[in-house]
Write a structure and sequence with these properties.
alpha+beta; five-stranded mixed β-barrel; two-stranded antiparallel sheet; 7 strands; 34% helix
Length: 244
Amino acid sequence: MRHRTANRSGIVIRRRVTPAGDIIVTLLTPQGKLKAIARGGVRGPLSSCLNLFHHVGVQVYQGPHNDLASVRQAVLEGALPTLAQPERYAFAHLLAEFADALFQEGEFSEQAFELFAAALRGVAHQTDAEWVALVMSYKLLGLAGVMPQTARCARCGAPDPAHPDPLGGQLLCGNCAALPAYPPEALDFLRGVVRRTVRASIEAPVAAGQRPALWRALERFVAVQVGHVQSWRQLVPLTPAAQG
């Protein structure tokens, strides 16, 4: 931050309470990711504002010798209460962990903020929260520039691969693959999710029985390219799409 005191508006994507009762939060804002600490926040009025997925306006102070900015004030600007439902919370948490891993502190990305905010609204309000989370996870990856290669085999470079890559979450040709090809609908999704609009993908859902393979591909690709994501553990008991 150029100035010691600044006002920011963002969504809480990470929250941790320290043994001393401080709240350390990470916000995704239109100006990039911001990490700050609310000292003694658990026992004060900031506690109710700085909850996961809340859209808040904060005033932060950055001291000359402090690594973390301090939250001086926080105002709740928006909340999505339905995200507390178990069948929605796990997907929202996965999206938040993706955003935290993909977008760096200080990185200007208004598009990332808008896409993530839209993803949370979709998970909160749409009937098929799983499909929204799947589409938006791939869109966040695409925005960060780490999408799987779909035009050529990940091993030999042959064109038009159609088989799952069990190790890297990408696509393999028939000669390199040990698993059957994706069904046409799932393959079309993988090849087109980045270039299609969010609305076009949401309005053409893949059948539930084909989603486990898409989740597996996403999990393995993220593990290799981005890093381990803890949220998969929450998804396992909640949806068949994460069990296969």
